[in-house]
Every structure is written in C-alpha cells, then in structure tokens.
Amino acid sequence: MTSQATRVLVLNSGSSSVKYQLLDMRDGTRLAVGLVERIGERASRLVHTPSGGGAEKRERTERIADHEQALKAVAGELARDGIGLDSPELAAIGHRVVHGGPEFSAPTLIDDAVLAEIERLVPLAPLHNPANITGIRTARALRPDLPQVAVFDTAFHSTMPEDAARYAIDTGTADAHRIRRYGFHGTSHAYVSRRAAELLGRPPEELNLIVLHLGNGASASAVAGGRCVDTSMGLTPLEGLVMGTRSGDIDPAVVFHLERVAGMGTDEIDELLNKKSGLMGLCGDNDMREILRRVDGGDAAATLAFGIYIHRLKKYIGAYYAVLGRVDAVVFTAGVGENAAPVRAAAIAGLGGLGLVVDAELNAVRSGEPRLVSPGHARVAVAVVPTDEEMEIARGTFALVDA
Ligand code: AMP
Predict the structure, then answer these.
(1) How far apart are CA 187 and CA 153, in angstroms?
(2) What pLDDT does 188 receive?
(3) Record-annotated residues binding substrate (predicted)?
(4) What confidence score (pLDDT) does residue 161 get?
C-alpha cells in the first residue's frame, strides 16, 4: 500500500443487492454512495451518488445478472468519477459480514483460511453470510492484489461476559451447535457509543451507556467503559426488542405450540416470527411514521402496537440500568431512534426515578447531528446520535491496513 492510499470502499452485499460507499479516511469524506438492487431480476437498478461539486445522482435500470456484474457496474460508475477501483489511492475494501460466530472479535484481513471460516459460519446466518461471501469472492476476483477486510456485525458484542452470552440450556448441546448469544448491529453500537462519548466530552472508558438502535431491526446494548456487556439480540437477530417485522422476545414454547396445535412447519414459523410479526404483525404497518400518524388519528391497532413496542423498550432500559449499576447516558440511534421524537419521549416517560428525563423542546428539534435531548440538570443524559455503520466499517478496515 502506498502512503497516499487513504480510500476505503465499503461493500454491504445482500442476497439481491449491494450497497456501497467510497470513503476517504484522511478526513472522513464520502466520495460516493450507491446501491445496486434486484440483482438477478430483469429490471435491476443502480443508483450512484457522487459527493460534492454539485454532482448529480445517476440512476439506471437494466438487467444485472449477478454480483460480479453488479460490482463491475459499480466499478464503472466510480471510474466515471475518476475514483475507480484501479486508483492507487484505494487502500482496501471493507466488507460487512453479518455473523462472525465465536471466531471473530475484530476486523480481519481476508485470506483463503478466513474465507473458509466465514463459510463455516453459514449455518448460524443462512440468510446473510452467503451473500456476504459472494461479495467478498467477487471483490477479490476483481482486485486480487488489494487488501480486503471483513468487519463483523457480531464483533463488538464478543466482550459480553459468559453470564450474559450463555443461554440456560444444556451446555453440551449449546457447545456442539455453537448456540449462544452473539448480538448484531455491532458496528452501529460501537460507532454510536464512541460518538456519544465525544458528545459528552468524556473518555469512553469512563462511561456507562445504554445504546438503543431502533431501525427496522432494533437492538439495545449495555456498554461499560467502551465494551459491550449485554445486548438484546441473540443467536440470531430475532431476540430482544419489538422490531418492524420481528417479534423479539417470546416464550420459545410458542414455537412448539404453533407446530403441535396450529400445524405449522418450521419454515412457516420462521417466516411468521421474522417477517410477519413485530409492528407489522400487530397493526399491518412496520414504518414508524405511518404508525405515529395512525396513533394520532386514534387507530386502536396502531396504538396497541406502539404501546407494546414502548413497553419492551422500557423493560430493556430498566434491565440494562440494573446490569450497569450506574448509567451516564441513554443514546437513541437509527431510523426510528434518530427521527421519532414521540418514541424517545414515550420510552423515557416515567423514568424520572432513574434520573432519566427528556426535554420536550430539545426532543422536538430535527437534526442530523449528535445532540442531547435531556435538560441540563438531568442526572443521566439522553442523547440522539446518528449512526454511521459504513464509516465504522471503513475505520476498522483502514486501521488494519494502515498499521
Ligand atoms: P433503519 O433500519 O435504521 O434504516 O430505519 C428505518 C425505519 O426508520 C423505517 O422503517 C421507519 O420506521 C423509521 N423512520 C425513518 N424516518 C422516520 C421518521 N421521520 N419518523 C419516524 N420513523 C422514521
């Protein structure tokens, strides 16, 4: 790598999509942001937005057969802007990988052995890791000489103590099948806890934080001194909070009941709990904007869904308060956490006894910046910190190749 190589291409490969960002780690500039979706369909779509200089967003719809074609199309768009994959300024490609299992606790330089390890983890994330692997293979074929780094959604949570990470099931069975709580959204929880410390003007090592990542998927984490000590997602992203379409915590016996009494098959139940539950299952909508509109209009199903969502959130805030013993800040992030003031207000309402209060005026401010929404005198800060998972992936990638 040459010393002028400061750019990182971040790739987030899904089964039929690739999201990408090109970042310059000298100053954190975003040079391009884009997305290829509906890969393999007749009308795939590529949207490419070069940053700065008033450059226009470019969009095209055509058949993009596979991930290789998709990445070549992305490379073409970047080359058009003079920031192609062959540029000496490109230091590395950082890949989002959903499941790092027990093996990976930090960003990892990819070689054949690492790729084989990630493949071994496919049974733990059958929907996500195969697409991530395809992205890695394709990018390696395109630039075999360039360092490629895997950044895992689970890694930040690998510091969880066994008390928090283990399920209370037979140890032999758990170990044989690598069943434990891994947690997800780790890049977001890591980024947001660091930015929250900056906002509070204190070193992360001194702070105890509860981070609430509330997007379409949602997770909470308890972070002590910059290290995760508990998180709400488990073996899979199904555990924990009520989400857009996922149930979050339920009695596992509901599954047996659905099998024995409702006659449902495993795949059907999987789909029910992951795709047809949560806010969607409760009221037919998973977009919090629509739910808040319906709540305002007095809609009973949306009001109940909102109530269940908030109740679960409060339970996790209380649980993590107890896990941490002392809390310096509760931090909201992701689509709902950053934008839905009524969710923040309702989640914190009634928690004055824990030192948690939201200032209505500050909470109503719309901004893309990290900010406090608690009054100055509050014992515990309540903050909103926009997440940036791509920046965190680029940071982890660059730190490894710039060493
Ligand atoms: P994410 O998964 O972080 O992209 O979050 C997506 C979700 O954020 C959407 O499904 C919406 O429910 C929610 N969201 C986005 N913007 C708003 C908004 N202005 N008000 C309420 N919810 C929002």
Answers:
(1) 6
(2) 98
(3) 96
(4) 98
Phi and psi torsions of 203, nearest 5°: -65, 140
* pLDDT at residue 54 tops 90: no
Q: Which of 190, 201, 187, 215 has its CA nearest to residue 372?
A: 201
Residue 32 one-letter amino acid: A
Type of residue numbered 332: F
Q: Find the mean pLDDT for residues 328-355.
A: 98
Token representation of residue 28: 């954190």
| Residue with tokens 């997007």, as numbered in its chain | 215
Strands 44-50 and 58-62: what pairing?
antiparallel
Q: Residue 48's Cα: distance from chain center in Å? A: 22
Q: What is the DSSP letter of 57?
A: P
**Pocket around ligand 1: residues whose beta carbon is below 6 Å from it?**
215-216, 244, 286-289, 334-336, 339-340
pLDDT at 52: 65
Out of 24, 153, 285, 388, pick the active-site residue. 153
The full set of domains in the chain, from first to last, is 7-152 (3.30.420.40), 201-389 (3.30.420.40)
Let me know if 236 is exposed, middle or buried by CB neighbors in 10 A (0-12, 13-18, 19+): buried
Six-digit token pair at 287?
Answer: 């977009």
